[in-house]
Amino acid sequence: MARLLVIGGGRMGEALIGGLVAAGWAAAEELAVVEVDPSRRDELSAAHPGLVVGDQEVPADAALVAVKPGDVAAAAALAGRAGAGRVLSVAAGVTTATLEAALPPGTAVVRAMPNTPALVGVGASAIAAGTAAGPDDLDWAAAVLGAVGQVVRVPEAQLDAVTGLSGSGPAYVFLLAEALIDAGVLNGLPRPASRALAVQTLRGAAALLAETGEEPATLRAQVTSPGGTTAAGLRALEAAGVRAAVLDAVSAAAERSRQLGG
């Protein structure tokens, strides 16, 4: 019997498999994955020796649903046939109620919203419990997702806001990175140098936030001298409405998540 059956061998499913093995949560031989694409099954087998890979379910203690929203009902039925007592879903917009309706009564369901930096082990995920999931089930889900990043616990009603903030957030950062690189080129830098400086600036700023525990406003003030270059740049950003645009972006993404879930 597999310790965890991963239903869907896409990028997120594979990221979690790799993270769980690297963190020592399970050996590859204790994990199984169901993937319908034969070429993808071959890739997974080659990348993770010992991993049980197939196109049908195997008996499992628990299951991870990592498929597109339209495939969730079939994936949940598969998890039920595998005998999974716990199901963790990372399918965007699919409620715990929908999952529970497709699973045997009493199955502990935890819904999660991870983001793509999980692919490199620094993801941000939020989890919410279904009606049959208790504290132990949330602890289990947090341990699974904690193998690829940080996990917070929220009521399910807040997962749409999580989607707008951290689920879609990497795209906002990538857009900012594009703009910074282009701005460096506009001001005379070679593109490779501009890219290197922009990426390291974003990495360093995030590390300062994470490691110092200071509020963003405090760190911003520390780098902003009166009448200096940073003050001039910030004035241009505020005049362009960047802060309001970010608020609108997160709100728009959260609202779209609500629509998809409805």
Automatic annotation (TrEMBL):
It is an enzyme of class 1 (oxidoreductase). Coiled coil: none annotated. Keywords: Amino-acid biosynthesis, Cytoplasm, NADP, Oxidoreductase, Proline biosynthesis. Residues 6-91 form the Pyrroline-5-carboxylate reductase catalytic N-terminal domain. GO terms for molecular function: pyrroline-5-carboxylate reductase activity. One of its GO terms (biological process) is L-proline biosynthetic process. Its EC number is 1.5.1.2. Its main location: cytoplasm. It catalyses: L-proline + NADP(+) = (S)-1-pyrroline-5-carboxylate + NADPH + 2 H(+); L-proline + NAD(+) = (S)-1-pyrroline-5-carboxylate + NADH + 2 H(+). It comes from the Bacteria. One of its GO terms (cellular component) is cytoplasm. Pathway: Amino-acid biosynthesis; L-proline biosynthesis; L-proline from L-glutamate 5-semialdehyde: step 1/1. Residues 156-260 form the Pyrroline-5-carboxylate reductase dimerisation domain. Catalyzes the reduction of 1-pyrroline-5-carboxylate (PCA) to L-proline. Belongs to the pyrroline-5-carboxylate reductase family. This is Pyrroline-5-carboxylate reductase. It comes from Iamia majanohamensis.
